[in-house]
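Morning run. Coffee first, then this:
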Amino acid sequence: MLSSRYSTTGVTLIELLIGVTIVGIILIMGLPSFKSWVQNTQIRTATEAIQNGLELARAEAVRRNTLVRFQLTSTMDSSCVLTTASSNWVVSLDNPSSLCHIPTSDTTAPRIIQQRQVREGSVNTVVASQEVTSAGVAATTPVYNGSITFNGTGRVSAASVTTGNNVWIDITNPTVGGACQPAGPMRCLRIVISSGGLIRSCNPLWSSNPALTNYDPQGC
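And here it is:
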């Protein structure tokens, strides 16, 4: 009868403990990077959602050949008011203040086309928006109050943003994620809306001016 020259052995307790320890060390070392990745993802999600809402409002204004509003709102219920610091948004034909709870199927004011709540994938993000001049300086007498109205040609109405000025919407994550790069790990983003109706997202860490040393195609 043939006999096996080799015997099969299992994993010893010491080997198992060593393996668990190594895995634990790897997880601990990777945890900060994973946390930053999650929080950066929230910034990206909020930015894309707000940009999608702006592009929807502009497209609907052109399609309907009428004024369509995009507005940031404090809440999504009957207590909502326009604000420059929120990632809740409503696209509608009328002012949605105190009427954000009205369903999109309702044909009465504010005739909501679409809306989004902050908790949808970006609960930790912080939004701050303002009207700025073409030189990137805060407007001294801004018209913008959290609402941007597009007309039938896709341009921004002078009633919502001063002609020639832009709107910056900055999305950060300072409380949970930390400071923006280069001071911290967060890849903060900005949405720029020009009076001509151009909507683009960019990274404020870089410049869109090719003449500057920090130029990058993704810069602001």
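The chain has one domain: 13-202. Good start to the day.
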